[in-house]
Amino acid sequence: MIITFEELQAFLDEQFPQGAAYGTLQKLGDGWAEMKLEVDEEHLRPGGTVSGPAMMGLADVTLYAALLSKIGLVPLAVTTNLNINFLRKPVAHQPIWARATMLKVGRTMGVGEVFVYSEGAEEPVAHSTMTYSIPPNR
């Protein structure tokens, strides 16, 4: 791991303050990250469940954190592909957690996966795979 939790948190606060709306960094390791989203009314969809966009946002920012743990503080690493499978209904009004793991980090691309869970649940509510583009002159 080439950055610390504190360095990444400071970077996100400064460079991506709107990212806090998608979740807060909880843990960071070499090629992995965990984030938590406190679910409230703005994250719910009709039917009383957490919306897909809320889960996608959490997954995306969590994988960004995992990628940066491998490549350093690179603002222009951007999502180029995001696939998500919604596996079961998340619990409304309960935090959701995401754990992202980088599968491969190359010179210009990073590929990873994210599992999203309702707090306290063993089975994931969503699974996502993503590809990030890494700028050549980082």
List keywords for this structure.
single chain; 138 residues; Thiol Ester Dehydrase, Chain A; two-stranded antiparallel sheet; 38% strand; EC 3.1.2.-; ACOT13; PAAI_dom
Textual characterization of the structure:
This protein has 138 residues and is α+β, with helices and mostly antiparallel strands. A hairpin with a 3-residue loop joins strand 6 and strand 7. The protein is globular and about 45 Å long. It has a six-stranded antiparallel beta sheet with strand order 1-2-6-7-8-5, covered by helices on one side. A two-stranded antiparallel sheet has the order 3-4. The longest helix is centred in the middle third of the chain and has 20 residues, at 52-71. The chain has helices at 5-15, 52-71, and strands at residues 24-29, 32-37, 44-45, 49-50, 78-86, 96-105, 109-118, 126-133. The model has no long low-confidence stretch (mean pLDDT 95). It has one domain (5-133): Roll (Thiol Ester Dehydrase, Chain A).
Shape: globular
How many beta-strand segments? 8
- The percentage of residues in β strands lies in 35-45%
Mean pLDDT: 95
CATH class: Alpha Beta
CATH architecture: Roll
| Number of helical elements | 2
Following the backbone from N to C, one meets helices and strands in this order, namely HEEEEHEEEE
State the distance separating the first and last CA atoms. 16 Å
- Mind describing the biggest β-sheet? 6 strands, antiparallel
pLDDT under 50 segments (min length 5)? none
As laid out across the biggest beta sheet, the strand order is 1-2-6-7-8-5
- Domain module count: 1
Q: In CATH terms, what is the fold-level topology?
A: Thiol Ester Dehydrase, Chain A
- Which class best fits the helix and strand makeup? alpha+beta
**Can you say what the CATH homologous superfamily is?**
Hotdog Thioesterase
The radius of gyration computed from the alpha-carbon positions, rounded to a whole number of angstroms, is 14 Å
Enzyme class: hydrolase
Family: Belongs to the thioesterase PaaI family.
Domain Thioesterase: 47-122
EC number: 3.1.2.-
